Amino acid sequence: MPSTAIFQRRVIHKFVFCLLAAFLIALGLLAGARLRAADQAKASQKASTQKLSENDRAIEANAKKMLEEGRRIFRFDTFGSETFWGDALQLHKAITGEKNGGVGDGLSPKTALSVGLKVDADALPTELVTKMRAGKVDLGDPATTVALLKLDAVVGVKGFFDQKGNLKSVGLRCAVCHSTVDDSFAPGIGKRLDGWPNRDLNVGAIVSLAPNLKPLTDLLGVDEATLKKVLSSWGPGRFDAEIDKDGKAMRPDGGQAGTLIPPAFGLAGVNLHTWTGFGSVPYWNAYVAGTEMHGSGTFFDARFSDATQYPVAAKSGAGNTRGSPDMITAKLGALHFYQLAIAAPKPPKDSFDTTAAIRGKEIFEGKGKCATCHVPPLFTEPGNNLHTPEEVGVDSFQADRSPTHKYRTAPLAGLWAHQKGGFYHDGRFPTLRSVVQHYDETFRLHLGEPEISALVEYLKSL
Length: 462
Known about the structure:
Layout (H helix, E strand, L loop, with lengths): L1 H50 L2 H23 L5 H7 L2 H6 L12 H6 L4 E2 L5 H8 L8 H9 L6 E5 L5 E6 L2 H4 E3 L7 E2 L1 E3 L8 H6 L5 H7 L3 H11 L3 E2 L3 H4 L12 E2 L20 H12 L5 E3 L10 H6 L3 E3 L9 H10 L12 H12 L20 E2 L1 H4 L14 E2 L23 H11 L6 H13 L1
Parallel strand pairs: 1-5
Antiparallel strand pairs: 2-3, 4-6, 7-8, 9-10, 11-12
Helix pairs in contact: 2-15, 13-15, 16-19, 18-19
């Protein structure tokens, strides 16, 4: 019996050894295959690059350069706007506060985050991150905000300092409105998400902090109290990019006239940009940089000389802006290139019902007739993607502020990433379901509740 047990153990040991050897051999073969595949891919890529003509290589090099430059411009360029926000409005003094040489209580990080400003976690030194995690950083002190500006960690806001380290001015960047963060460190603090609209940003509240609002009251011909009332009416995630052109502070029904900050992703192949489509992406870059951010450069559109539609612009000459030096025009190409490279973000897998979304796609392309205007995969019309207010079943107030007098068919990809604030230009529809119900009633589609629900899930899946 003992000899039999010993024999069995030897057999088992040999079997286990053979299994282990086979496993190691298979693992080695798999690793070798992967390495060979990687080497072949590299070799193929190198061979492909070598086959490129000199002109093709120049195109690739230019594309890489444009992408890098565009990202830098989008994130970090102020276009000289500090002469307006800092030198004229003196917003930096409201940030530092009276205790630090400014005015008022100052803007603490806690308050800054509450009005929607974001912090780039990648710009924070390790030592500071450690202290923040330990609760050893005073987020109620405006001096901490100034320190974050010195680190260039406040998304979309650039601080300018004198030789003594005192904040002397601030400028704005594209990213202040059209970027947010993933909140990976804390709410409002995380890694950048370029192209995502900052629907937390309370532009009106921030502008109202400026000690000197005279440049704006003079432009609009109103007193400071009236201006602040209008600014406070917008709320988070909204901005009025036409008030400095037409002077329309409120809707005819007394409602606020601001529109939701639009996304700057998923724009490749899309012709007209923003809610009423009176220009392309580079048009709007020039419009915003020159007349909204108040940078120094050139913007031209003769339509704003129409004193009937645009009395403020006709008087100010905004349609023929010629700032010197021009710190905008040379950057428009790379900025446009980068924006077109920002794809619409894919929704998390657990954020929608996959089975329902499949049914919703059939309704979207069939009975719902959605794809007639929201043509996949752009989800807007190729070409002149505009419609009259009557065609989409809404009032004409915002359309009539545009030279087109129409509304643009909004691209739908990435809808899940900007649901905050509602839908349509002014957020009048609080949910996707209410949007679908509006079109169901307007076009008499006679959709049942299960079909509406399926459509909503499909929209969430884009």
